Amino acid sequence: MARSSNSTQTLSPGNIVSASLRLYGANWRNYLSVALTAILWGALPFISLLVIIALTAATPFAGILFLPWIALLFYCIAQAGMQSAVISRLAYGEFIEKPESVATARQAVKPKLWKFLSMALLLFLIYIGINILTTLLQLIPIVGLFASIAASLWFQARLFMPEVFLGVEETTDALTAIKRTWQLSKDSVLPIILTILVATLVSIPFFLVAFVPMIVGAIPLVGQSFANLSPDEATAVIQPFLIALAISMLLFFVVSIFTVPFWQIIKSLVYVDLRSRREGLGLELSDRNPNA
């Protein structure tokens, strides 16, 4: 990847995905280490919630742990968002030929930790509204489902990369990051949608593999009646499924570690491409190694 002040080359969805894969391959160690941190922060609230539920079943007093759990949830959301933005910042540095180390990128993004929480909460509220809208669209006869899908994709494109703005632009806050991604994507909705679809086609086979154990484990339960089974017999029937479910969850965790950098790099390149066309940030693709 090379930068050129005179170039405003438009990147196709295929170019964006292939360039992202090349950069991923050249810097996978850095990206995976940050992705692992992001996924661990994201998983911590769910793991701790299971522990609290188990403790609550043993003693009612454990229920008071739900209050500190909410604080933990907010902190983990902020940390997971920040770590994801670190990956995008690292990729951005490579794309504009100003690479940073993981430590430098993390240090630059760290002061914005609580802005990532604010952004996540704002996006949560926005997507609640979007879900209400798409649900209402589905009530329209015949075309409702297609209109709902089209609206969902349109909003995904318009809100595709606010964490990149927050991670890269020094003075950006949560609301400004959302406004910036909305404004910058205004004239590029279709290319972004196509990029999302191409990237999804690349990612989805790995997640399908993760769900295979769960599906295989669920097959024996189809049509199974538990009414006439003793507790021991019911446990024996459902135990293989629970083991398969645990394996699928572990595989899903591993696949997420590998796919998070892929998506964050894509978002970073879309950001660079849009800025090159809307704001004059030059970008030119080359076939050489991004670190060459």
UniProtKB/TrEMBL annotation:
Tree of life domain? Bacteria
Residues crossing the lipid bilayer are 31-57, 113-130, 136-155, 189-222, 242-266
Instruction: List UniProt keywords, sorted A-Z.
Output: Membrane, Transmembrane, Transmembrane helix
Q: Does the record bear Membrane in its keywords?
A: yes
Q: What is this protein called?
A: Glycerophosphoryl diester phosphodiesterase membrane domain-containing protein
Question: What organism does this protein naturally occur in?
Answer: Oscillatoriales cyanobacterium SpSt-418
